[in-house]
Amino acid sequence: MSRPPFEYPTVDMTAEEVEQERVVYGGLAESVRRLNEASLRTTVDETAVKEAQALVEQATAALSEAMIPGNFGVSLTTSGKVRGHGNAVVGLRNPIAVPLVITQDREEGRATAEFELNALYEGPPGMVHGGVSALVLDQICGEAAAAGGHPGMTGTLTLRYRKPTPLGRCSAVGWLDHFDGVKATVKAELRRADGEVTVTAEGLFILPRWAREELEKERPPQYE
Amino acid sequence: MSRPPFEYPTVDMTAEEVEQERVVYGGLAESVRRLNEASLRTTVDETAVKEAQALVEQATAALSEAMIPGNFGVSLTTSGKVRGHGNAVVGLRNPIAVPLVITQDREEGRATAEFELNALYEGPPGMVHGGVSALVLDQICGEAAAAGGHPGMTGTLTLRYRKPTPLGRCSAVGWLDHFDGVKATVKAELRRADGEVTVTAEGLFILPRWAREELEKERPPQYE
């Protein structure tokens, strides 16, 4: 794992507990994702909506019996996995996340994903929201920077919308273009189902100064 | 209402039906938004998760009894309101939308919104995902272009991340900077709760060629 740009807390979880979290809480999120789409597309009448809404509220009350305060955050498991389950794009436990399953290729400094953008991600009629393309490409760029050994936070991101992206199957690829000692320049592309590139992105990723200072204390950096 | 960049279909809805849609289906989306957050933050045990998940699946099945095919799309009501309830950022019926309530000032060519970004919108620990900032600013820029009388689709969008944006209260403002006859240049800012500008954006918004040709047939443009 390449060095994360933050000092994440470590949580003491066995491999079994990590897997249970994936199945139980990840499974819940998956069910809630299907509910999100049905809520948007339903045409059942007011009475049926009210009945469904009562079930939703009953589920919310039950889940709210015990909750972490505030946000989910990012932690490391004792086995060294990044547990970013709250992330708005890739979060296993975040029902508004697609979620993207991003493959990092550390040899090549590349990050890739294939995914489906359904009705929940609409902007212009039948098309992916321009901001959703940006959301996906920001995450892909960040992971490409990390895959290339230079994790950081987004400094700038420039998006060019070349063709419309219809809702449906999409793919994205990002790659580390170069690193100047401080900033990683990353490029990325979003493709629609027919393989055409629809949106291109270029991002600069930077480590916050305090994180750079931490890293300098312990040179050489311990990238795996 | 300024001219939309697409030929939206008109749906025959009375003012009462529009209001009923807002209350009934908008109310359902609001309940599902609360469920989204509870699903992410819950720490109840596996048995309780399974029970809640069963309720969620029951609600999904009931709502799926009758659904529009595919995506929600964008339509106009007979009273001339844009019915973009599926939109990923502002959609009344879209449970993954914040949703932003954007005020367009047509005199000034400005669009503004105040909103809360909760744990569902997290990227770095405790902070708004950089891509979520892009998502919000893309929508604000598009609405500022429309407010300024030059609606269009995103051509390019450049984001500069100046300071971290903690989760919580935020605001955004976008304004039409200039229009060169084809492209509207729009600028925008995201601010965090303490009023500091955290992300700035500059976007070019363009009408698709076919939409420009339609508009030219019926000059002068009928902006209200």
Structure description:
Two copies of one chain form a homodimer. Chain A is an alpha+beta fold. Chain A is built from four helices and nine strands, in the order βααββββαββββα. The first copy, chain A, has helices at residues 15-41, 46-63, 130-147, 209-217; strands at 10-11, 75-77, 82-83, 103-105, 110-117, 153-161, 168-179, 183-192, 197-206. In chain A, the strands form two sheets. In chain A, strands 4-5-7-8-9-6 form a six-stranded antiparallel β-sheet, covered by helices on one side. In chain A, strand 4 and strand 5 form a beta hairpin. Chain A is globular. Chain A starts with 9 loop residues before the first strand and ends in a 7-residue tail after the last helix. The model of chain A is unreliable at 220-224 (pLDDT under 50). Chains A and B meet through helix 1, helix 2, helix 3 and strand 6 of A and helix 1, helix 2, helix 3 and strand 6 of B. Strand 6 of chain A pairs antiparallel with strand 6 of chain B, so a sheet runs across the interface.
- Which stretches of chain A of 5+ consecutive residues score pLDDT under 50? 220-224
Largest sheet of chain A: 6 strands, antiparallel
Q: Major sheet of chain A: order of its strands?
A: 4-5-7-8-9-6
Roughly how many Å is the radius of gyration of chain A?
A: 19 Å
- How far apart are the termini of chain A? 6 Å
Shape, principal axes of CA atoms of chain A:
globular
- Report the count of strand segments of chain A: 9
The share of residues in helices of chain A is: 25-40%
Figure out the total of helices of chain A: 4
Measured by DSSP, the beta-strand proportion of chain A falls in 25-35%
Oligomer: homodimer
Instruction: Provide mean pLDDT of chain A, rounded.
Output: 90
Largest interface: A-B, 87 and 87 residues
Query: H/E order of the elements of chain A?
Result: EHHEEEEHEEEEH
Structural class of chain A: alpha+beta
